[in-house]
């Protein structure tokens, strides 16, 4: 059983996705991750995107700890149903509609946010979690990161969770890694948007 570790909804029990199609972030990694994010002061009032959300535990944790809006993005029907259930539990506990669920592929959802030439700017996100399935290649991840770089707020933080045996993601020109940390079989990569033409 997954739970919210801390914050206004700390201790809330969440549903897990049945079967082994998803890879939940362990409580140890989650606690370490959110301790770091709180030290960066990026949680309070942030707009959060949880990509490849699984059961949505990272986005829901962010909502409990002060995010002002969270979107869980998931494609697999069973995981979408669990995300919807967990979002409902969190929203009820917080007495606020903080968390929404978007069904679709990550690339398609990111494309829908992208700025349109001559039109309005795309959605801007302050904090993004990406826990892609292990079979996703580094080339596929690089294309997704490039799409993501177009919809980030200045000063945003991107967290990519991968197997400790996976190569470092290939960062697009709009994103720059500033930290990484290994926790057992998991490695977290932290990146931020950069302006083109800057060093």
UniProtKB/TrEMBL annotation:
What NCBIfam families does the record point to?
Answer: 16S rRNA (guanine(966)-N(2))-methyltransferase RsmD
Is the keyword RNA-binding in the record? no
Annotated PROSITE patterns: N6_MTASE
Instruction: Identify the Pfam families for this entry.
Output: Cons_hypoth95
PANTHER family of this UniProt entry?
A: METHYLTRANSFERASE
Q: Does the keyword DNA damage apply?
A: no
- Indicate what this protein is called per its UniProt record: 16S rRNA (Guanine(966)-N(2))-methyltransferase RsmD
Q: Which UniProt keywords apply?
A: Methyltransferase, Transferase
Q: Which domain of life is it from?
A: Bacteria
């Amino acid at each position: 059983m997954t739970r919210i570790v801390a914050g206004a909804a700390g201790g809330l029990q969440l549903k897990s996705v049945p079967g082994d199609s998803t890879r939940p972030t362990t409580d140890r990694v989650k606690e370490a991750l959110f301790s770091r994010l709180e030290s960066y002061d990026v949680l309070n009032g942030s707009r959060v995107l949880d990509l490849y959300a699984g059961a949505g535990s990272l986005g829901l944790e962010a909502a409990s700890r002060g995010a002002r809006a969270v979107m869980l993005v998931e494609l697999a029907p069973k995981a979408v149903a669990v995300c919807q259930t967990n979002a409902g539990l969190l929203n009820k506990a917080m007495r606020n509609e903080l968390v929404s669920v978007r069904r679709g592929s990550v690339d398609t959802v990111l494309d829908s946010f992208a700025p349109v030439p001559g039109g309005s700017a795309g959605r801007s996100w302050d904090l993004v979690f990406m826990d892609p399935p292990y079979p996703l290649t580094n080339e596929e991840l690089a294309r997704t990161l490039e799409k993501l770089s177009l919809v980030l707020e200045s000063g945003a933080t991107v967290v990519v969770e991968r197997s400790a045996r996976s190569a470092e993601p290939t960062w697009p020109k709009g994103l720059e890694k500033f930290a990484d940390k290994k926790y057992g079989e998991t490695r977290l990569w932290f990146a931020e948007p950069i302006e083109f033409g800057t060093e």
